[in-house]
Amino acid sequence: MLQLQQLEVAYDDSIVIRDVSLEIKQGQVVCLMGRNGVGKTTIIKTIMGVLANRKGTITYKGEDVTSKNPTYRAKKGFGFVPQGREIFSNLTVYENMLLGLEARSDKKRTIDETIYQYFPVLKEMKDRPGGDLSGGQQQQLAFARALVSEPELLLLDEPTEGIQPNIVEDIQKVIKDIKENQKETSILLVEQSFDFAKSVADYFYIVDKGRIVYEGEELIEEEVSRLLSV
Asked: Where is the ABC transporter domain (predicted)?
């Protein structure tokens, strides 16, 4: 479904991603791991089109989307849950979710009830400003905003970072449900928790100093600990 080939990304003259190639197959959950500051968020933002790559190609369902902007990619089926959530605090919960519908290529402008089954608190608080929600609830809202567009490629940038264990469990259940019941949807997950990654992912990449240093279907805890240790 998605292929990155020899991706290079730089901030001004500083190269932060070097020769990165990875693949996500349809229906697959792929986890991208690595220490803080090694380039994981840069990779996922480049896939979404928020950042431009200097070299390499991004191919989605056979189409070269390397030069396409984020709006084009969103309408093609990309969904993005950024690190830090980035919800609109002055808009209501419901209005925040409606913004996710702008990415749809059809004219549907209603929230599917499945979203509220995933995150019941959002229905209870749909008329509250997004800024009134706790950090964990805001993460649920950011996730829901991405899901309302029914993306075929879902990009999750550290969705469990800094949130309470019960909401981590909710997010884990949602990812597993998508994996089991929405076979057309693929997920790229940026995650640092070994246990969480192993519980949901089918394939793993580890990044260090802007390069892929490990990939495979299995995570060996000793190897991961070595690569992720500070």
From this structure: 2-228
Per-residue tokens: 194: 């070994």
Distance in angstroms (rounded) separating the CA atoms of residues 216 and 226: 16
β-strand partners of 204: 31, 216
Which candidate, 21, 23, 28, 32, places its Cα nearest to that of 2? 23
Specify the pLDDT at position 161.
87
Closest CA to 136 of 124, 121, 157: 121
Q: Looking at residue 144, what is its pLDDT? A: 94
Nearest to 33 by CA among 207, 213, 230: 207
DSSP summary character for residue 92: B
Distance CA 206, CA 158 (A): 14
The better pLDDT of the pair 174, 111 is held by 174
Domain locations in the chain? 2-228
DSSP string, 17-48: EEEEEEEE-TT-EEEEE--TTSSHHHHHHHHH
Residue 230, pLDDT > 70, answer no
> How far is 219 from 151, CA to CA, in rounded Å?
27
Report DSSP state, residue 129: B
Pick the CATH number of 2-228 from 3.90.1700.10, 3.40.50.360, 3.40.50.300, 3.40.50.620: 3.40.50.300
